[in-house]
Amino acid sequence: MTARDFYLFDYFPWLDTGSTPVASTKRERRHREMMEEYERKDLEKLRELLSKRGEVYTVTSVSKSGMTRWIKLFIVADDCKLWDITYLVAKILDKKLDKSGRGIKIVGIGFSAPQEVIFRLGQELFGEDCLKYKEIG
Question: 71-75 contacts: CB < 8 A, separation 24 or more?
Fold first, then answer.
């Protein structure tokens, strides 16, 4: 037996080409379709919530160096409950969430990070900058 017998590219050819495997089984295709449907529903739900309320509350925490910010986004529901929409916004804007739960990670200086996130969210949902926001804390 040689090292060639354990060459991964023989068993997983997509690793060699850099492409990802295509969902080949019926179960994988169904799972992918379900996830796309959930994302579409999330987008519609967030669009509906923000069109009614129109104001987003943001909480920002900053690293010691000031180079990184974590932003959490909230809206107030009809029953006066606070809804955390951070996960939905991160999914829509294709941003990373912090593993410790501090919010959407934004790196950089010289700009208002909450304003950037709200602007991009308005562009993504409504095609214009129409969302209002208030910074808390």
Answer: 71/103, 71/104, 71/106, 71/113, 71/114, 71/117, 72/102, 72/103, 72/104, 73/103, 73/104, 73/117, 75/49, 75/50
